[in-house]
Structures are given as structure tokens and as C-alpha cells.
Design goal:
Layout lengths: L1 H6 L1 H24 L1 E3 L5 E4 L8 E5 L4 E8 L2 E6 L5 E5 H4 L14 E6 L17 H17 L4 E4 L12 H7 L4 E8 L10 E5 L5 H10 L7 E6 L3 H4 L5 E8 L3 H7 L2 H20 L2
Parallel strand pairs: 7-8, 7-9, 9-12, 10-11
Antiparallel strand pairs: 1-4, 2-3, 4-5, 5-6, 10-12
Helix pairs in contact: 4-9, 6-9
Length: about 280
């Protein structure tokens, strides 16, 4: 026997390696299909949507088996009582929420306007680009929204061009509860205009733009109000979508705010509060 083992030790070593690799692979695949809820009161729903009927509320530490996945929603079975249903995976896996908020199951798409070779509007003497501050403000908003547990998706998170026709695709794919596009206005004449504005197009976006407009009244710049305009990024999308102009970049007064991290955070907080109000009633 010993002689046989010595003669075949290379083959036996290879066989052991294959068996070990197979075991580890099976173990890994099994672990990927297991989920333990982290926050309290994660909702189990009948369909992959925050508006679907609630089946039950799951306690922290509930062990679930993942049966299938769909755009971030997971169809699971409770290991204890065999109850099946859908959970928002980003809520169930959240490591800092004690309990979900009204926004936790929501999906919000943030669209920082322009980017890359498309600078957008420019300040007086062309020293400041719109694309810079749309991204900074969107990132500040993402940070505030993620504190609520919401799933936040960005159409861009670096200085790149995103074709206008591509922008609504993220909201459509993930059936977003809201798409918000960030922009800064320009009058074409130095210091001739100031203030913020909000735009929508489709009827299903009217409540969203009204709620956000009310919330943005807290900003230090005058709110010029909202109106319906067929901008491509808010026109060719079936999900609720608004476009925010958060100041005139060719106004020295507005630019001093636009460049300020404090103003960006204030706008982000107001947008978050507006979305909270909107989601509670929709």
C-alpha cells in the first residue's frame, strides 16, 4: 500500500486538490445564497417593489435563503417558518441602520449634468465649469440620502460625458422612485440673473417637483419656482423626474454659494427632506 501511494502520490495530490477546490466552491456558492438581516423591521413583500403588499416585518438576525434576484430585490425564504417573499437587499444588508426609514426601500437616481468635454455653463471669464459643481452637489446629495438607507444610483461619478439618451436608462432599469438632474443656470450676461428653478415635464413628475420646490425654499437664493419644459433627460423617462437649476453660475453672488461645500450640503439636505415628504405620500 505504501509503495502504491508513493508511486501515485502526484495523482493523489491532484485528486485531493480537485476535491478541496470543489468543496470550497460549493461552500462559497452556498454562502452567496444565504442572508442574515441586519436592521430591525426589514419588510418582506409580495413583489419586488416598496409599494407591494407587506407580508411581515423581519427582526434583526433573521436567517434567509436567497432563491432569486431582480434588480436589487431578492426573493427569499425565512429559514425558521419557510415564509417566502421579496426584500430590498440594500436594506437587509445595511450595516448602520437600526431600523429602516420611509426612504430606505426607495431607489433614487442622481444625474450630475454635463461632464468630460461637455463643460456646461461657465462663470464670468470662464474660470468655473458647471460640470464641476453638478458632480460635487450630486455627491453631497448621495451622502445625505444614503444616511436614510436609500439606494442611490449615479448616472456619472467622475468627469465623463454621459450621452443624454443614456441618462434615463438607469431610472428605467431599476424602476427608480425619482430621478433628479443637477444643473446650474447661466443668463449669458454677467450678474444679470440670480436664483434657483425646478423643471419637470411628465404629469407623474408634478407632485415630485412641487414637493422639492417647497423644500428648496430654505436655500439662501431666491426660488424662481417650477415649470414644465421638455428637456430630454426629464421628457424621455417614464419614472418621476425633475431637473434642478441651483443658481446662476455667471452671477458672482450665486457662484459664491455654488462653490461652497456648505451650500452644496444645504441643498442636499433640502432635497433629502423633500424626497422624504414625497415618498411618504407616494
Amino acid at each position: 500500500m505504501i509503495n502504491w501511494i508513493q508511486k501515485n502520490k502526484i495523482g493523489l495530490s491532484a485528486l485531493c486538490l480537485i476535491v478541496l477546490t470543489t468543496f470550497l466552491l460549493v461552500l462559497s456558492l452556498s454562502a452567496q445564497n444565504q442572508l442574515t438581516t441586519r436592521p430591525d423591521d426589514v419588510l418582506l413583500r409580495q413583489a419586488p417593489s416598496r409599494t407591494a403588499k407587506q407580508i411581515q416585518s423581519l427582526k434583526s438576525g433573521t436567517k434567509l435563503t436567497v432563491l432569486k434576484r431582480q434588480n436589487g430585490w431578492w426573493y427569499v425564504k425565512d429559514a425558521k417558518d419557510n415564509q417566502e417573499g421579496w426584500v430590498a437587499s440594500w436594506v437587509a444588508n445595511n450595516t448602520f441602520l437600526k431600523k429602516p426609514t420611509p426612504l430606505s426601500e426607495a431607489t433614487i437616481v442622481l444625474d450630475p449634468g454635463h461632464g468630460g468635454s461637455d463643460t456646461g455653463a461657465m462663470s464670468y471669464k470662464n474660470k468655473n465649469y458647471e460640470k464641476t459643481y453638478t458632480l460635487e452637489t450630486a455627491r453631497a446629495t448621495k451622502k445625505e440620502l444614503e444616511k436614510t438607507g436609500a439606494r442611490v444610483l449615479m448616472t456619472r461619478d467622475s468627469d465623463v460625458v454621459v450621452p443624454l439618451l443614456y441618462i434615463p436608462r438607469t431610472a428605467e432599469k431599476y424602476r427608480a422612485d425619482a430621478q433628479i438632474s443637477f444643473h446650474f443656470d447661466a443668463s449669458g450676461s454677467h450678474n444679470s440673473a440670480s436664483g434657483i428653478s425646478q423643471y419637470y415635464y411628465n404629469d407623474n413628475s408634478l407632485d415630485l417637483v412641487q414637493t422639492l420646490s417647497q423644500s428648496l425654499n430654505n436655500l439662501p437664493l431666491q426660488n424662481r419656482g417650477f415649470e414644465s419644459i421638455p428637456y430630454l433627460v426629464i421628457k424621455d423617462v417614464t419614472r418621476p423626474a425633475v431637473l434642478l437649476e441651483l443658481g446662476f453660475i455667471d452671477s458672482d453672488k450665486d457662484l459664491s454659494y455654488i462653490k461652497s461645500a456648505a451650500y452644496q450640503k444645504k441643498a442636499a439636505t433640502d432635497i433629502k427632506n423633500g424626497l422624504l415628504d414625497y415618498i411618504k405620500t407616494h
